[in-house]
C-alpha cells in the first residue's frame, strides 16, 4: 500500500512513561516507520515531568527510530496545565500547539492512545483523518484507569467519585456531561486489545456508535537465543515479571513460596510493595528479588524459567508478559481472571483459580519437562500466528482501509 501519514497521540511515551501503554505505542510507531510510513508522536511532557518519581528519566532526546518525529507538549505551567485538562476533559493550555500539529501534519490517520492528560475533546480537532482510539487501559470508564476500587480490590461497579477522592484526585464532572459523549462521537473506530476489555467497557456503561474492533497488541520477535545459552540462575525457577503492586498479585505468589520449596521464585520488577514483599520473604532464600531489568535480561530469564506465573488479581487489559513468555516457548501459569484465559486458551499455559490449582500447575511443569516443553511450543505457535508485528499490521491496515473507504463513500 501507499505510505500513509500517521500521528500517534498519547500522554506517555518511552522513556517518559510508567507502564505498558507507552511501550505499546512506541512499538507501533517503530513498526509503522520500518514499513515506510511517516510517523509523528505527540505526548504530554508536562504530565510526565509532574508525576515522574525521583530518579526517573527526564523528558528529552529519544533513542528511537530515526524517522519518527516527536512533539513534546510543554506549557511552562505543569500543574495548572494538567489540572485544567483533568477537570475540563480538554487540552486546555496545550490546545493551540496540538491543533497546529494536526493542521500542519496533514495526517491520514490520527491514533489516540492514553489521553488522560491530553484531553478527550482533542478527538474532534481533525475530522479529515481516520481517527482511532486504543483502550490500553479502562480510563474511558474509570477515572483511576484500572478498575481497581479503593486501591485494594477489583471494581464490581461504578463508585467513581468516591474512588477518585480516595485516590486523592479531584472528581471529573465533565465525564457526566455531553462533553464526554460528543468527544467519543469523533472516533471512527475503537481498538480493543482483548475481548475481555471490550466487554468490561460495555458493562461499565460505555456507549459508542463506532465499532469496537478487537486487534491484540503485538511483540517484536525476541533476539536470537545464544547457542548453549546457560541459565542465569543456578537452580530451577519460576518467574514473575511486573510491577510489585497489589493488583499484580505478587504478594500472593510470595506467600505461596514461603511454603512451596520445589523450585525457586525469581521476581523481576519494582514497586510500592517491594519492601513489604522482601519482609514477607525474609528467611526464604529461594525467593529472589532481581529489581528492574532490561529487555535482554528479561528474555533470558523467560527462556530458562520452568514457567512464567501471572498472579494478577486486577482486571488486566492485555499483559505483554504473556506474549514475552510464549515467544520464548515458555509456558504461562495465570490467574483465571480478565483476559488471561482468552490469551492462553489451551495453547501456551494453564490457568488457576486458587492456591491448590496453582501448585498443581507448577508441579506439572516442574516434574514433567516434556509436557512443559509441549505447552511452551504451543504458546510459541500462538505467538507466531497471532502476536507478531506482521499479524498486527495486517489487521490494523485492514481496519484503516475499510474506514477510509467508508469516509469516501459518505462524502
Question: What percent of residues adopt helix (DSSP H or I)?
Answer: 25-40%
Q: Give average pLDDT, whole number.
A: 93
Low-confidence stretches: none
* Main β-sheet, spatial strand arrangement: 3-2-1-4-5-8-9
Order of helices and strands: EHEHEHHEEEEHHEHEEHEHEHEHEHEHHH
What is the fold's blueprint, element by element?
Layout: E1 5-10, H1 20-34, E2 38-43, H2 45-51, E3 69-72, H3 78-88, H4 95-105, E4 109-112, E5 130-134, E6 148-149, E7 153-154, H5 160-166, H6 178-184, E8 189-192, H7 195-203, E9 212-214, E10 237-241, H8 250-257, E11 264-268, H9 274-280, E12 287-291, H10 295-304, E13 308-310, H11 320-327, E14 332-335, H12 340-344, E15 349-352, H13 355-367, H14 369-386, H15 389-410
Parallel strand pairs: 1-2, 1-4, 2-3, 4-5, 5-8, 8-9, 10-11, 11-12, 13-14, 14-15
Antiparallel strand pairs: 6-7
Helix pairs in contact: 2-3, 11-14, 13-14
Characteristics:
single chain; 411 residues; alpha/beta; seven-stranded parallel sheet; three-stranded parallel sheet; 15 helices; 38% helix
Q: Your description of this structure?
A:
This protein is of the alpha/beta class and 411 residues long. The protein is built from 15 helices and 15 strands. The strands form 4 sheets. It has a 7-stranded parallel beta sheet, sandwiched between helices. It has a 3-stranded parallel beta sheet with strand order 10-11-12, sandwiched between helices. A 3-stranded parallel beta sheet has the order 13-14-15, sandwiched between helices. α1 links the parallel β1 and β2. α2 crosses α3 and α11 crosses α14. The longest helix has 22 residues. The radius of gyration is 22 Å and the shape is globular. The two termini are 22 Å apart.
